[in-house]
Amino acid sequence: QVHLVESGGGSVQAGGSLRLSCTAPGLTSNNCAIDWYRQAAGKQREWVSTISPDGYTTYADSVKGRFTISKDKAKDKMYLQMNNLKPEDTAMYYCHSRSGRVCTVDYWGQGTQVIVSS
Questions:
Q1: What is the per-residue DSSP string for 99-118?
Q2: In 10 A of CB 113, how many CB atoms?
Q3: Which of 26-30, 44-48, 58-62 has the lowest mean pLDDT?
Q4: CA diameter of the chain
């Protein structure tokens, strides 16, 4: 069982920045991609960004150019740098990882809340 722990959420004004972190033993050392998702109140969870084992990154159109995903293998941490935040970015943000030979075992953190006020 992988226990993912997110941190770094908070309340900011529109245009501000936050950096989310996710950590777990072995988070960045297996051969699976790791992701950020978010879920706003009353909405379905949506994908935000993914970083592959070799560092390739992808982003949802809604955050492209404003958010940056990264990882630190030495610290077993993943980050989401969020700049130019908008009220519509308000959500609970979740770290997601996988394990298994074909990366089909899913793990989720408890989430960290981000609130962006206008």
A1: ETTTT-EEEE---EEEEEE-
A2: 12
A3: 26-30
A4: 45
